[in-house]
From TrEMBL:
It comes from Kitasatospora cystarginea. SUPFAM superfamilies: L,D-transpeptidase catalytic domain-like (SSF141523). InterPro entries: Big_10, LD-transpeptidase, LD_TPept_cat_dom, Transpep_catalytic_dom. Residues 264-393 form the L,D-TPase catalytic domain. This is Ig-like domain-containing protein. Keywords: Acyltransferase, Cell shape, Cell wall biogenesis/degradation, Peptidoglycan synthesis, Transferase.
Length: 416
């Protein structure tokens, strides 16, 4: 009802038809009161500019607007993103300090991380997993104690390219004290430090294991000294979230356990044509023949990397062989020492054992055609395992290169 309508209605009530007795007088009084009350009500309710005429108009009790925190929280992965790199994720704050960050994958598994000492950033303890959805919530406060927050849900990328990694270890296998773990990649690795962080070793005796790169596709691992007998070792591979090269990621996340067996080391003396085998406090000497003057055996520490009951040896597959060519299809009790073709093996065609060096570089032990398990070669073969050490001394040859087979023991620890 408009103001003039209200006044008119009030006047109509006061000037209406006369009523009997006291009712008539009461009607006049009520009408007058309503008229005055209506006018007063309208005057109090609205001013000409539509504003309240109470305390707010006088500027006395208006509620102050809530204050906003100066702290600005930023999550490196935008909310809704679907191709976030698993490495480099972080939460940062400007004009404030972080007070809490929680992060979990789609299954609710928490992601652990740490706030920096200055309270300005938070990073996860490890790279995020590829192809995984995450949600992060972060809170911060400014110098006045006012709180701000940020939330982001995103998914890490699914790699279009991967580099497969393979090693020379069998799950729960048992190896000699000289075993070196060699990991090979199918593609060149550029981010080598990141790969080393993604391959870690846990040894029951606390041995520290370090990796050394030979080129950009191979990395070998060993402790400073030979493994201790009966040591239990687990390799932890966490490479699926590691960008090994731009746009290329690893392909394996797994744990691979193995064990170190008894201690057995053999020393070949090319000058005396004898091999001394030490195991468990006992020593045995075996007559051998090493590489001749034209094809001397490598000096240095080598490791048995494989065993073959019978194998073929052909000079065409070995570089720099001098003298007569050879092709022996049934070499018995063969144990490989180098990638270049050096073996400890049985020899049934010669008779120089303990007398002279007559081989093309291998270490030959007396055997019979077809392999005699009771021969010197047969017994040595049966007692040996992959990872056993064979050291050659006093040969006229050079020292074997660390990357020739599992010969990394020839590189000192400082350079490893």
């Amino acid at each position: 009802m408009k103001p003039n309508q209200a006044v008119g209605a009030a006047m109509a009530m006061t000037h209406g038809p006369a009523r009997r007795g006291g009712v008539r007088g009461a009607g006049r009084r009520a009408g007058a009161a309503l008229l005055m009350g209506g006018v007063l009500l309208l005057t109090a309710a609205c001013n000409s500019d539509g504003s309240s005429s109470g305390d707010d108009a006088a500027g006395g009790s208006a509620s102050a607007a809530p204050k906003t925190s100066a702290a600005v929280v930023t999550v490196s992965a935008k909310d809704g993103a679907g191709d976030v790199a698993p490495a480099g994720f972080q939460v940062t704050v400007a004009s404030g300090t972080l007070t809490g960050v929680t992060m979990a994958d789609k299954d609710g598994k928490p992601v652990t991380g740490k706030v920096s000492s200055d309270g300005q950033s938070w990073k996860p303890d490890a790279a995020l997993a590829v192809g995984t959805a995450y949600t992060v919530n972060a809170q911060a406060k400014d110098s006045a104690g006012l709180v701000s927050a940020a939330t982001s849900s995103f998914t890490t990328l699914s790699p279009a390219k991967t580099a497969a990694a393979t090693d020379n270890i069998a799950d729960n296998g048992t190896y000699g004290v000289g075993m070196i773990v060699s990991v090979n990649f199918t593609k060149a690795v550029k981010n080598k430090d990141d790969v080393l962080k993604g391959i870690t070793f846990e040894a029951s005796d606390g041995s520290v294991v370090k990796g050394h790169w030979f080129g950009d596709r191979r990395v070998d691992f060993r402790p400073e000294k030979y493994w201790k007998p009966d040591t239990k070792v687990t390799i932890h591979y966490r490479l699926k979230s590691v960008e090994v090269s731009p746009g290329v990621y690893g392909d394996v996340d797994k744990d691979e356990p193995f064990k170190i067996g008894r201690e057995r080391t053999s020393t070949v003396d090319a000058a005396t044509h004898q091999m001394t085998v030490q195991q468990g406090g006992s020593t045995k000497t075996i007559p051998i023949t090493a590489g001749n003057d034209d094809n001397p055996s490598w000096n240095g520490v080598m490791v048995i990397s494989s065993k073959e009951k019978v194998t073929r040896m052909n000079s065409a597959t070995v570089s720099n062989v001098k003298g007569s060519e050879y092709d022996i299809s049934d070499v018995p009790h063969a144990m490989r020492l180098t990638a270049s073709g050096t073996y400890v093996h049985g020899n049934y065609w010669g008779s120089a054992f303990g007398k002279a060096n007559a081989s093309h570089g291998c270490i030959g032990l007396q055997d019979a055609k077809g392999g005699d398990d009771s021969s010197s070669a047969g017994r040595f073969f049966a007692d040996s395992i992959v990872g056993d050490v064979v050291k050659v001394v006093n040969s006229k040859g050079k020292t074997v290169q660390p990357d020739n087979g599992l010969s990394g023991w020839n590189l000192n620890w400082a350079n490893w």
